[in-house]
Structure formats: C-alpha cells, structure tokens
Design brief:
alpha+beta, 209 residues, 3 strands, binds flavin mononucleotide, NADH Oxidase
Length: 209
C-alpha cells in the first residue's frame, strides 16, 4: 500500500467509475476510517447512509443534474482555470464533471455523510463532518476505489434530503459516489505554496518554501 503522503498527493476526484459492485467489507473499512476523524467534543453526531438502491440514487441524480444544467455547468464554462491548472486540463475536468453528472446514480455505492442538528452553528457548521468525509476519501484511495466529494445536491437540499429519506433534524453534508475507477489516480494539481502562505504578517512570503 502506498504511504500516506503518496495517497494524499494522488487522491484526485475520480468521476468516471465502473458499475461493478464494491464488497461491503471495503465500504465498512472506509466508514471505519471516517469515524476515526476528529469531531467537536467527540460528540459523534454524525450518521452515514450507505445507498445501493438504484431508485433512490436516480431520484437524487435528477436533482444533481438539474443543478448542473441550471447553475454549475454554465458557471464552470464562464470561469478561468483555477491556480496550477491549465485551460486544457480545466476543460478535461469539466468533461469529467459532466460525465459524473450523467452517471451519478450508476456508482455502485454512495455514502451520504450526515450530521444531526445541534452540532456547530455558523461558520463551523460542517466542521464536525468534513474531517470524516476526507478520511473516507483517502481510505477509498488507499483501497484503490475512486470517489469524489460532492455537495451539489444541496442546491436542492430539501428535495434531495426527502429523496434520501432523511428524518427531521438530520442533514446531509456530502455524497460520496464510490466505485472502481476507470482512470488512474493523481497527481492532484494545485497552485504554489509560495503564493498562499505568509509568515508573521499577511502578504509577507513564508520563508520555509
Ligand atoms: C465542498 C466541495 C464540494 C464539491 N462538490 C462537487 C460536486 O458536487 N461535484 C463534483 O464533481 N465535484 C465536487 N467537488 C470536487 C472538486 O471539484 C475537486 O475537489 C476540485 O476540483 C479539485 O480537483 P481534484 O479533487 O481532482 O484535485 C467538491 C469539492 C468540495 C471540497
């Protein structure tokens, strides 16, 4: 198994997934990694919904696609490539985003990461679930499974959470569609550290890079 830094550096969003089933044992390992994450006061108000039911996935995919057609797709095309990403690569990313949009429901397993109400309000709202989500993303990579952290369903939060059958007082923060990837992992593309890390005073270059 690759070492932790290699896993981190090669965990890119894997949007093209095979429909082949993923053993429950691997999904359990991913979930176990998720709940090792820090969370406020160790109150563990997280809940995870594993979805394999095609009908439920299809109902959410309709909303996911609507959000792409109406909002995300046009915004993507109108935006400049992010730091460290060439235009050509950005267009490839857009094609992959569009692919996942059309095939979201075909991923054999979803993990829906949820929190019960009563966790941190305001800016810290997702702080007790996103560490668990990232642990699961990295664990999937370590097991040679692909996934992408997705939150787009939240553009139709009420409808999506109804389709997911969430009870009152529980909210979803991300859906991880998981499957064996068609492509290769990593490396991720980011801007240079020197552009974004300061030392002592805002704007003064950090001298460690
Ligand atoms: C909060 C958040 C929400 C995201 N939502 C989506 C999404 O709904 N659909 C998607 O295809 N990717 C989504 N992503 C993945 C990002 O687009 C991706 O991480 C980013 O473009 C960097 O690419 P990389 O992960 O391949 O390095 C999301 C990422 C984050 C952190």
């Amino acid at each position: 198994m690759p070492d932790l830094f290699e896993i981190i550096e090669t965990t890119r969003s894997m949007r093209r997934l095979k429909p082949d089933p993923v053993p429950d044992e691997l999904i359990s390992k991913i979930l176990q990694a998720g709940i090792c994450a820090p969370n406020g006061g160790n109150s563990q108000r997280w809940r995870f919904l594993v979805i394999k039911d095609r009908k439920i996935k299809e109902a959410v995919q309709v909303l996911y696609k609507r959000a792409f057609d109406e909002t995300i797709g046009p915004r993507y095309l109108a935006s400049e490539p992010p730091p460290g990403v060439t235009r050509e690569r950005y267009l490839r990313q857009h094609a992959a985003v569009s692919y996942l949009t059309d095939h979201f429901h075909e991923a054999p397993v979803w993990i829906v990461a949820c929190l019960e109400d009563g966790a941190n309000p305001g800016r810290a709202a997702g702080a007790s679930i996103y560490p668990a989500i990232q642990n699961m993303v990295l664990a999937a990579r370590a097991l040679d499974l692909g996934t992408t952290l997705t939150t787009r369903h939240l553009l139709y939060e009420k409808e999506a959470e109804m389709a997911l059958g969430l009870p009152r007082g529980v909210h979803s923060y991300a859906i991880l569609p998981i499957g064996y990837p068609m492509g290769k992992f990593g490396p991720v593309k980011r801007g240079a550290l020197a552009e974004i890390v300061y030392q002592d005073r805002w704007g003064e270059p950090y001298r460690g890079v």
